[in-house]
Amino acid sequence: MRITVRRVVEMMDIHPDHAELIREYPFLEAEDLTQAREYQRTTRNPAN
Question: Can you give the residue range of the structural domain that contains 18?
């Protein structure tokens, strides 16, 4: 299943417990969550 990084980050904000998130969305892996946060961190506009 394809899912956008933005959607993964939104889901992580709703489900701060990553284990719970992975149980609810079994197509995600822990590395997907790490990479989504890293992408968000590196692409965020510092002026915001």
Answer: 5-43
Please report whether residue 13 resides in a domain.
yes
SS3 32: helix
Q: Which pTM value belongs to this model?
A: 0.75
Tell whether 9 is covered by a domain. yes
Q: Please state the domain count of the chain.
A: 1
- Among 48, 44, 7, smallest CA distance to 33 is for 7
The stretches of the chain forming alpha helices (DSSP H) are 5-14, 18-24, 30-43
pLDDT tens across the length of the chain (48 residues): 788 999 999 999 998 899 999 998 999 999 999 999 999 999 875 554
